[in-house]
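User: What would this chain look like folded?
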Amino acid sequence: MAVHEHPHRTPGFHLSFRRNRTGSAVAAAADTVIHPAQARVLATLRVLTGFVFLWAFLDKTFGLGYATASGKGWIDGGSPTKGFLSHVAAGPLQSTFHAWAGATWADWLFMLGLLGIGVAAVTGVALRPAALAGTALMALMWTAEWPPAKHLADGSPSMSTNPFADYHLVYALVLIAVAVAAAGTTWGLGRWWAGLPVVRDHAWLR
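Assistant: Here's the prediction, encoded as structure tokens.
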């Protein structure tokens, strides 16, 4: 996959897909044009989504007084996962999430995931790994909240607004979309990142 400007077409980014010399499909032969306005919209979506993850990391780390009360941050000895996971009250993995709540390894994985996804999306680098990690994280959080449930374990209404589609799925899809569209090249460091030798040799890092 190459991202380049074509001198004989409408200005914009062109994602080119070609076959290799043996004829096996590298990707379908096609040119998809991303115009500058579309690229800016994708970049804005990328940065805002990244800030959602980055802000969650900062608030949970330092207890900025929003979702995490002052003095209850990670650096103050609080657990970023205990409150959420210990109150899981629906779905097939209740006992599993309760066992994970407050575990050191769970706290570190969760916080590193938030930080890594947030930084990657805001700066426009490593969008493919960020999409993979973000999708996994959102899938786990979706399972923990379990929107299909009409009632919680104690019989009270779950107040679920939709049995399937919620913000976890939207965030995951956004991360996948900006990675597929190589949205890190606009208002980001994606072009520089893609030019690094290790990234050129391992396309999954882009």
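Residues 85 and 97 are 5 Å apart (CA to CA). If you want, I can go into more detail on any region.
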